[in-house]
Amino acid sequence: MRIGLRRKWKMSLLGLAFSVAGAAVVHADTATKAPRVVASISPLAFIAQEIVGGAEVPTILPPGGNPHSFEPKPSDAKRVQGADVLLVIGLGFDDWALRLPAASGERKLHTVLASRGLDLLPLEAGHAPHGAVRYAQHGDEHESSDRHQEELDPHFWMDPVCAVHIAETLAAALEEVDPAQAVAYRARTEKFRARMLVLDQELLAKLKPLQGTGFVATHGGWAYFARHFGLRQAVVLQEGANQEPGPRTLKQTIDAVKAQKLRAVFSDARFLETSARIISQETAIPIVRLDLHGASANAKDYDTLLRWNVEQIVAALR
User: Fold this and answer.
1) Does residue 135 register a pLDDT over 50?
2) Distances from the Cα of 179 to the Cα of 39, 129, 169, 318, angstroms
3) Rounded to two decimals, what is the model's pTM?
């Protein structure tokens, strides 16, 4: 699946002008009320808003919330009341969102797994698993006893190729729920793809001088981002849910920074700030404070989320 997605992305670059023109020509929106979509986290909502049109896509996780420790309150069930589609990451990342439809009485809610069909990376060593459920490469659910399955990394939204795939997955689901608007969903998806191709070229150019740069991650959320943009997530500190690593792990990390000439600590405000400071002090490498969800950037769309994080990296390491 990875080969197919990446090849499709490269072919899209060749046809970018045609995609933009095609998206501009198609005006398939009508006055028909669109299905109401709710997303578990803000990055999914950013992508979903591109596909549903002007309708707001609310999120279950509040701004600045930690998805790994979030426990919905009874009032949170109201967020999915009256919704038609619930868009979630899956992979155990946001199981708290999957409990809400039953709690709200919305048993007919159409749940869409954003992870379905993606080329998913295994969790890096040191990264705490998100749940007991394991998923195959094609998004199919399996029992955790299946020895052929691994815990998989759910932070795929930080790769723009994956973001377009999420848009396509949601558009296909919306076509089932609202077939009368199928042409509109496809047109918006193509428009989003064209914009992502332009954004991708912009960000690749900014990060080109940093190709191969290795970094320490306080939280292992940057593997997909690193794979796509040519960086290297060399060490992941997190040993448990927001659990600071012990002295032995810190020493091993400091030794790895020196031996591998790692250049930065990528730190999310939600995770292990104390450890990041210790490593920075001991190795003189900078802490680059990033945000997987866009709260720090006051992001209102996916472009801002990705662009803001790249700007922080370039400013610290150029």
Assistant:
1) no
2) 21, 38, 15, 48
3) 0.85
